[in-house]
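INTERNAL AUDIT FORM
Audit reference: QA-55
Scope: verify that the stored structure record matches its stored sequence.
Auditor: D.O.
Record contents follow.
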Amino acid sequence: MRKVVKLKVNGVEDEKAVKPGTTLAEFLRYELGLTGTKIGCDQGACGACTVLIDGKAIKSCSVLALQANGKEVVTIEGLAEEGKLHPLQEAWLDHGAYQCGFCTSGMILTAKALLDENPDPSEEEIKEGIRGNLCRCTGYVKIIEAIRSVAERRKAGQKEGH
């Protein structure tokens, strides 16, 4: 028996009938075709499936689609605006913060939530903020550099009155 879930995904209102046991990750990938949300461990341990729910970084394999009813969800596909990459996406490219790319979408969304909450985190705060996201390729150095660079650019922009 299917139940209706209504949510706003990447700024678009959506309503679909889902099986009660469908995870949000499955819903996003298989019902909405938003394949940037990766399913890694399917146990909430790796962070590859991280999305923003009402601005908070949440592992979407650990949330049922029905639990997201009435919420606003942002996936990696919803970060770019008007064809322009989000500063974190640009920083990932500029700093070579990706290798295979499997963790990238979840890591970027986690970083966005971190910077939204703490616009000028220390290196230790960045490490703490991304600790629930695993990367098997990079060693995290470039990822931390990318996040730090966005924080520094924002800080410089604020000083210049932007």
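Auditor finding: record pair retrieved intact. The first strand starts at residue 3 and ends at 9.
Action required: none
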